Amino acid sequence: MQPNQLKRRDLITLLGSAAAAWPLAAHAQQAERVRRIGILLPATADESQFQAWVGSFLQQLTLLGWSIGDNVRIDTRWATANATEVRRHAAELAALAPDVILAHGASSVLALLPVTSTVPIVVGAGIVDSLARPGGNITGFGGFEYGLGSKWVEHLKEIAPGMVRMAVLRDPANPGGPALFGIIQAVATSLKVEVTPVNMRDADEIERAVSALARSSPVGLIITPNPFATVHRDLIIALAARHSLPSVYYDRSFVAAGGLMSYGPDFLDLYRRAASYVDRILKGEKPRDLPVQAPVKYETVLNLKTAKALGLAIPEMMLVRADEVIE
User: pTM score, two decimals?
Assistant: First the structure.
């Protein structure tokens, strides 16, 4: 027999071995199925803080054994703060039928609800009605507790004791806005401070309202979390500097850009924790069985250069308590 020829019994043996291996190969192929994660963000792709947060999420996914291009695919939609764009990108993601969607904030989640009731949604930072068992296809991490509103008022009053009026910059469409404003108003009233809401629909509205308030009695600004604040961050900081307005923000990126101070959750930590929920869902757990969790890390950031420009002396105890001081 020539070397390249096979006996009939050898051929049968080879075919039998291959047939026995087919189920194993099919099983391995199925085990290596590429999973799909959608990410919906109410920001533009050049927003550095969102890039850092998503980076924290992806880094933790890698540590949990997920490799982009190997066993997982990421579809990211930078939807900006425009409600129409958020809805459009939400529909696009839902149409891709991902295994799970990571969403940021109430605006993203509300846009996803009409287009899918089955795709699991993990909220990287936002508001969900029931903390213990949110039910349905949503779970995640609450970016803010309403009690933060009282902290913003107290911090602003501590920095500028003579302040008698505060303007609260907010998104009127935010479903959690009225409750948050109510807490801010209650605490401000107890400190004998008047509170005025300022809606943030566009740049002109923000500039007109803040400029008008600045012409009245000494006023401070509280910037509440919403996509418009991110989009108009530079304008808000510039207005505060132009009119010498002490301001408190919900995220350190505002302080790094020249704002006075921030107090809020550590978003890097929230996105890192969100990766663990995405991992558990990809491995078979249901969103309804994963309780929504509150932030566990908060940070206070101060900008001394801005304080000096405003003629403010930051109290020593506040400096000691601060997690970061920018000089």
Answer: 0.80
